[in-house]
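Hi Y.,

Following your request, here is the sequence exactly as I used it, all 59 residues.
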Amino acid sequence: RSSDSRNQDLARYLDWYNTGRPHYALNKQPPAKRLSQLNNVLRNDTYPPKLIPHPHHRA
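Below is the corresponding structure, written out as tokens. Let me know if you'd prefer a different format.
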């Protein structure tokens, strides 16, 4: 078998592994289906600043 043939077989296997194979830890869904359920947007949550008294300041 040639290297090109192995690469094609590997590509088909990886496609099946990620899009067709049921994964029992993911409720029998393929991993690629799980990705579509995730939100991959970076969040920038803002919270009020937590005020920490200076160690030398007496309240």
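Helices lie at 3-19, 31-36.

Thanks again,
Q.
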